[in-house]
Amino acid sequence: MNREVNGVPEARMFIDNLKEEAKEEIRKLRAENKKLLRELHYERNINRRNKIIAESRDNLSKIVSAEKDRLEKYMNLLLTNCPDITMFFDREGQIVLASDSYLKSRKIPVFGMIRGKSYRELFPPDMEEDFLQRVDDIFQTALIEKRSIEAECDIDWRHDGNSRHYYIHAIPMIEESGATEGAMFLFYDMTEISKARLEAERAREAAERSNRAKSEFLSRMSHEIRTPMNAILGMTELLLRKEIPSAVREDALGIKYAGSSLLAIINDILDFSKIESGKMDILPVEYDLASLINDVVSVIRMKLLEKPVLFTVNVDSSLPRRLIGDEPRIRQVLLNLLGNAAKYTHSGHIALTADGAPDSDRILLRFAVSDTGIGIKEEDISKLFVDFSQVDTYKNGSLEGTGLGLSIAQSLCRLMDGKITVTSSYGTGSVFTAAIPQKIVDRTPLASVDDAPRKKVLLYEKCQICADSLMRSFDDLGVPCKAVRDAADFRKELETGDYRFVFLSAQTYEEVKKYTHKNSQNSQNSQKNFGAAVIVIADIGKLPALGEVRILAAPPRGTSIANLLNDESDASAYHENSDALIGFTAPAARVLIVDDIPTNLKVAAGLMTPYKMQIDCCESGAETIRLIQENRYDLVLIDHMMPDMDGIDTAEVIRGMPGDYYQNLPLVAFTANAMTGMREMFLEKGFDDYLTKPIEIRKLYAIINKWIPREKRRQGTYKPEPRSPVPRSRLPEGRNVKGIDLSAGKDRFYDEESYLQVLHAYCQHTPALLEKLKDVSEENLKDYAVTVHGIKGSSYGICAAAVGKEAETLELAAKAKDLAVIREKNDAFIETVKELLSDLKRLLSDLGMGAEKNKVEKAVKPSPDKALLETLFSASKKFKLSEMEKALAELERYEYQDDAELIPWLREQVNNLEYEAIQKRLESFT
């Protein structure tokens, strides 16, 4: 009977226990098995890894061995093929390796012959001890200081007299441990490079000599060109100071502005440093925008006088008047753009538009130049701003110009942080726009009209473009304006409207003037409208004589219109540029001006007239020293280039004199040399300031304001001298002389008396020249050409064009050695000239200017002084007019028994600047 425990049979319990024990044992066996498997796997991995390592070690050994062989191969190839000499030395300085280039240079068959030798033994036997000592120092420095050393020397390895120039580089050979095991010497053959370097140095020196020659040439030409420019601009300035007729003022302003533009071009051409380096200084100054625009317009309208091109100007009247910027550079940009438009526009319309976008204290000025010219092809627009480039050269090849204008304008704009853009349609026209930022001085507008709404304007203009431009100006100024296009509408408006001003073009004035005169019987409403001011717009050079009718010069612009509507003179724009700069007079101040050319003295002294200072003038350095010692001056202007003692020598003498007066006396270099660096040079030579010719008014006045003592100044402004009455003409009305245009002659010389004096000189000097033309042969054709050339020049000069043309024909025949033509025409030519001389003498006699009138008795000499003739010849070759004048003036003091006609002939040629003719004639005297 089975026993039970807690109700469970005992046997079952036993079996269950055995099962549990078996399971536990199986679990332990399985865990042990896994452990054994892991250990087995690990052992297998170790064995596999050891096998791989062994194989890798074997492979690495093979790779290292192969790489070692390869490196040795390349090392041998390096030593074999390296063109430069390479040598390796151990610590004791014994050679261990050398390139084949060394062995070949020393003619050593194998390296074994020099193995273990000292570096001293490896150089040629004639090497100097100083060089070997230098090598010792290099080697020791490389070993001890562990740094590379460089040197250069000439070595003749083969000892055959053919040295080579080497650059030596010694490099220490350092192990990983930091120990130095030796040094490597590299010898780079620099012979060809040295030759090239030497040639380059010679070329550089030659270029510098060439540059110095250019600079000297440009400096001389600067002086020679700027000196007469000083007279032209200075005398024009003095003329503008006077009360002169408006037509003459317009002409004088044209000369002034054209001369200023020419001077700007000369400055750019002659300033060698700017041309060569591309450097251009931007000098911001305060300026008047209205004056700038007036200047530009005055120059361009003169260029368009002979073209059927309409020129309009549209300037935003609200633009600030006073700005800060580089005014001359902006003027140059505008003149380039407008000049370009004038060049390529043969008919139609050119417009200058100016506006701006103000922002705080700055404004972006925009100048747009539009034209109806030939336009630009799209593919050519990229060429516009390239130096010396002119687009469509086949079509435009006959036009003058260097092709630099637009390139210069673009460069100047960029220097002023601006730019130029262009749009164009080929065959239709172009628009160039220059945008230039400027600083605002104050926001006073460019132009404004007092009580503008009440100044109602009636405009009669048939040209739609002109009418639109004027209407835009009136709109900017806030002036109400009614525009009409025909005479009937004009009359109707004049009778029914209440207009304060009537604007007419010169073309329409004649058509309707009967309606505008208060006393006109044709005006049915004259009592109502007689008070309207009539303003006629006329082209420069075509200003009609209109009595009390006021004139507005074309192209009209806002500032001019505003001046007229405000009852101010439009001519005031000129005085704003010069006299307004003068804020004081200094009667107690004393100034000395030194220049060897009298015209320059007259110009400088005349320009200083408004200050009412005591002004002394002299023509030499020696006289300057004397005057400075005898007087006390407040300012001295000294010309640079003078004969004997130049300006620098004069300044050196003054500064070397004892006393504070001579040390502190303000000296200003007064020179036509405007080259870069001249200012600095003069300041180093003892001058205090620098003034270039032609004299710029602002710069001259700035110097006066800077150096005249304040205690000698008085408040006051300059008043122009009153207008002198126009002298009555001495030439009778209707009096003519066959073969000469007397009217054109008077216009050319401006001064009738000067013209009559020239005619008198022509009558005096020409007969002697005619005598030389009587006997002509093959032997004297050269002299004949020179003589008839002189008659040609003087005849053209007095406006005897027919005689000048005949003389020119004979001159060309003489140069071509065509004796037949000369013999055919010579006698008739002489008779023609004699007839002209007879008529001229009769005219001059009637005017009280007989040939013997006021004749000065002169001492008589056998012949002209040869030394003076040689001086004149030499000066003519150097184009030194002042020296020529001095020599000629000395020669003219006497009458001569031989070559009596020579001196009068020379005077004619000097007056006409015929340098070549003078040189040919005087060759026989040198």
Task: Tell me the total number of β-strands.
Answer: 28
Q: In one word, what is the shape? A: extended
End-to-end separation in angstroms reads 174 Å
Helix percentage: 40-55%
Tell me what portion of residues adopts beta-strand conformation: 15-25%
What would you say this structure looks like, in words?
The protein has 926 residues and is an alpha/beta fold. Helices cover 50% and strands 17% of the residues. The chain has 31 helices and 28 strands. The strands form seven sheets. Strands 8, 9, 10, 11, 12, 13 and 14 form a seven-stranded mixed sheet that branches. It has a five-stranded antiparallel sheet with strand order 4-3-7-6-5. A five-stranded parallel sheet has the order 16-15-17-18-19, sandwiched between helices. A hairpin with a 4-residue loop joins β3 and β4 (95-98). α18 (621-630) runs parallel beside α19 (647-655) and α24 packs antiparallel against α25. It is extended, with a radius of gyration of 47 Å. 29% of the residues are buried.
Task: Give me the secondary-structure topology.
Layout (H helix, E strand, L loop, with lengths): L3 E2 L2 E2 H72 L3 E6 L4 E4 L1 H6 L23 H16 L4 E7 L8 E11 L5 E10 L1 H50 L5 H25 L1 H6 L7 E4 H15 L5 E7 L6 E4 L1 H18 L3 E12 L2 E10 L21 H4 L8 H11 L3 E7 L3 E12 L16 E4 L3 H14 L3 E4 L2 H10 L4 E5 H11 L9 H4 L3 E6 L11 E4 L4 H8 L6 H6 L6 E2 L4 E5 L3 H10 L6 E5 L2 H10 L4 E5 L7 H9 L4 H5 L2 E5 L6 H7 L4 E4 L4 H11 L6 E2 L26 H8 L2 H22 L7 H17 L3 H15 L3 H28 L12 E3 L4 H12 L3 H11 L2 E3 L5 H10 L3 H8 L4
Parallel strand pairs: 9-11, 15-16, 15-17, 17-18, 18-19, 21-22, 21-23, 23-24, 24-25, 27-28
Antiparallel strand pairs: 1-2, 3-4, 3-7, 5-6, 6-7, 8-10, 10-14, 11-12, 12-14, 13-14, 20-26
Helix pairs in contact: 4-5, 4-17, 5-7, 7-8, 8-10, 12-13, 18-19, 24-25, 24-27, 25-26, 25-31, 26-27, 28-29, 28-31, 29-30
